[in-house]
């Protein structure tokens, strides 16, 4: 499991070590230089002679970059630091200067080469015009180390001279080619704790993060700015509970309902699916496909798409009966009162009788005021905005997309449900601070019907662990994250690197489950 921690927790973990004189910045800078060295060898074959540009802000994040730059300069790299603040980390600046790195001050007046600490060579870089000199430097760099802002970031985006550097770097990259960008601790400008990415935000290829990942490296939309994430152990002892977690391959076996030797179809879980209709049978077929692919004991289908469901899946039982979990609402039209009544009844049953339920699409506006955490909502951003508006919040789809965690949390707080917010990175919020961010799916998965398959997979897992999911209110969030992981992996497996149809994703689920939990 990849765990991330809020800046306050990281600072609290650093404090006793700093008080004891542990050289945390040395550890961080050493690891950063090692990773930058790997990148330089990959793009240029060697560190010696490579061109490294440092973006340096006012705080310790800039200090990390300067110290790492000094290490690279001692290994023969040509290092130029662009100083975006009047005062930068003094020890780092001295180290870089001693290692013969160049410094160049940038700001409202552009580069003027007046960096402190006796940098006699700063003036070379300012030739050719102010902004032009910076752009030329960035364009000619093999690697840029982004040390503008770390966990001390406040507000959205990088302000001031640093923000101008972020924009200049974006222009260089948009023009094609450009350097490999390595973010120091976090990409500068992201919301470190909430994953927002407004204003000037560095787009990194790699983030080298210290002590533990930060939530913004996992959460959308900021996660996209982080690139690959390398976590460096600098010796911090962090709290037991992370801010945001991400399930990985090794986590699936513990969570998945793998049948024991004495299993039979009822003990493995029966899933009730109230989805689709005669007019729109596809959602029903896809939900059932996902559930069967995930290995549910049995599916009972209730609704007007019985013939189509049976044609695709003769193992399904059509009609009502006892179930251990539900999938509700996929493909249920707003004017289909018969099916909506069935969804209402199933929701009430799930709440009253302790049966986990997935409430998707057409079930979201039928939700009682409050539900237990074993009811899992699976909206996309637009549906979540609608749900929140129905509860009095003035919120649009774009607001949800800009701050998915905050809005998923709000929906959880208002309804009591576990909330799985679908997206390129899927965010899950449950009670007691359970938060997951799963970025497993290829962009190709954004396709009609994919959500129906996800609902089926999640329903199967909830049916298989029905009693556990009711007894432990944080478990539905973990199982929802697990379903997102399997669903995303199935999309990759169905057609690596290419387009996928939802039915192909469902067909790939059994193989993914076998790979994750098979002996
Ligand atoms: N502690 C340790 O031992 C270790 C720490 N480590 C490293 O330290 C980093 C944290 O360092 P840090 O606390 O100095 O904060 P940092 O992020 O560098 O910047 C703060 C400065 O930025 C400014 N500023 C804020 N927001 C802004 C904005 N939007 N736009 C523009 N400016 C903004 C802010 O100004 P202020 O808001 O105070 O006016 C202040 O001047 C951490 O991420 C890791 O890399 C590692 O070495 C491991 C050991
Ligand atoms: K940074």
UniProtKB/TrEMBL annotation:
CDD domains with a match to the protein in the record: YXKO-related
Cofactor: K(+); Mg(2+)
Pfam family, one: Carb_kinase
List of residues binding (6S)-NADPHX: 60-64, 185, 283, 331, 380, 452
Binding site for K(+): 61, 146, 188
Gene Ontology process terms (BP): metabolite repair; nicotinamide nucleotide metabolic process
Limits of the YjeF N-terminal domain: 10-242
Source superkingdom: Bacteria
PROSITE patterns, alphabetized: YJEF_C_3, YJEF_N
Catalytic activity: (6R)-NADHX = (6S)-NADHX; (6S)-NADPHX + ADP = AMP + phosphate + NADPH + H(+); (6S)-NADHX + ADP = AMP + phosphate + NADH + H(+); (6R)-NADPHX = (6S)-NADPHX
Classification via SUPFAM superfamilies: Ribokinase-like, YjeF N-terminal domain-like
Keywords, alphabetical: ATP-binding, Isomerase, Lyase, Metal-binding, Multifunctional enzyme, NAD, NADP, Nucleotide-binding, Potassium
GO MF annotation list: ADP-dependent NAD(P)H-hydrate dehydratase activity; ATP binding; metal ion binding; NAD(P)HX epimerase activity
Coiled-coil residue spans: none
Signal peptide: none
Binding site for AMP: 422-426, 451
InterPro entries: CARKD (IPR000631), Nnr (IPR030677), Ribokinase-like (IPR029056), YjeF_N_dom (IPR004443), YjeF_N_dom_sf (IPR036652)
Ranges for domain YjeF C-terminal: 248-516
CC cofactor note: Binds 1 potassium ion per subunit.
Described purpose of this protein according to its UniProt entry: Catalyzes the epimerization of the S- and R-forms of NAD(P)HX, a damaged form of NAD(P)H that is a result of enzymatic or heat-dependent hydration. This is a prerequisite for the S-specific NAD(P)H-hydrate dehydratase to allow the repair of both epimers of NAD(P)HX.
Quaternary structure, from the entry: Homotetramer.
Sequence similarity: In the C-terminal section; belongs to the NnrD/CARKD family.
Name recorded for this polypeptide: Bifunctional NAD(P)H-hydrate repair enzyme
Protein source organism: Cellulomonas shaoxiangyii
